[in-house]
Design a protein that fits this description.
Elements lengths: L2 H10 L15 H6 L6 H32 L3 H13 L4 H20 L14 H12 L3 H23 L4 H10 L1 H13 L10 H10 L10
Length: 221
């Protein structure tokens, strides 16, 4: 990757990007509230299972397909995979999360003059907006995929640091320990055929629904 692409990737995959990623826990807050995640060991187990069963088998493969669709200038494929992702958000707050962040990223890249976002349509998912930016900035797909996974992991670890709570060093140790799992998830996402895609995660859906009525929430999901 050349220096320009690397710098673009660091900017657009950063949790500091002003699209609201820090305000979501994706079910983790309820898992902590219910005692499923209560220390570094249980946090590691939660994150690895989420990576293997959710991100590697659905979210990341759909992002991979969206990036390829943008590269091929295939608007129909962009619309199809984005619609599949939106349909897979099976609770109100998970749907609101991807739509809010997708809208924010779309508006940001339009205002920065990064890309023409017209192809994205009206209700934009976060993966579609991210894939649009990746294509416009010439970021290699494999690097962009791994960066998305790392950004997710970093945000989840920050939730654990704040809410378990874990110490800062313990959080960084946890993030470092996820390297082989992130690499495995990226490899799975790149190679998984369409017939093997799966968003079957009923336990996560139940946690998300309970989070919607949870008392004393810090996060929006």
């Amino acid at each position: 990757m050349n220096a320009a692409s690397l710098l673009h990737l660091l900017q657009f995959a950063s949790p500091a990007l002003p699209i609201g990623g820090y305000s979501y826990s994706q079910g983790l807050e309820t898992a902590i509230d219910e005692g499923r995640v209560h220390d570094a060991v249980s946090a590691h187990a939660w994150l690895v299972r989420y990576l293997d069963e959710v991100l590697a088998r659905w979210d990341a493969p759909l992002l991979w397909r969206l990036m390829n669709a943008f590269a091929a200038r295939d608007a129909a494929a962009v619309a199809e995979w984005s619609a599949c992702f939106l349909a897979s958000r099976d609770t109100a707050e998970l749907r609101a999360e991807t739509v809010q962040m997708g809208y924010s990223l779309t508006r940001l890249i339009a205002e920065l003059g990064v890309a023409d976002t017209a192809v994205l349509g009206d209700e934009v998912t976060l993966p579609a907006a991210y894939a649009c930016a990746v294509d416009a900035l010439g970021i290699p797909h494999e690097d962009a995929l791994l960066a998305m996974l790392f950004s997710w992991a970093e945000n989840q670890v920050l939730v654990c640091v704040k809410s378990v709570p874990l110490g800062q060093v313990a959080g960084q140790r946890l993030l470092l320990s996820l390297r082989p799992d992130l690499e495995r998830a990226a490899a799975t996402a790149r190679s998984l055929p369409d017939a093997d895609l799966s968003n079957w995660s009923p336990g996560l859906s139940m946690l998300s629904m309970r989070h919607e009525v949870q008392h004393g929430r810090l996060y929006r999901s």
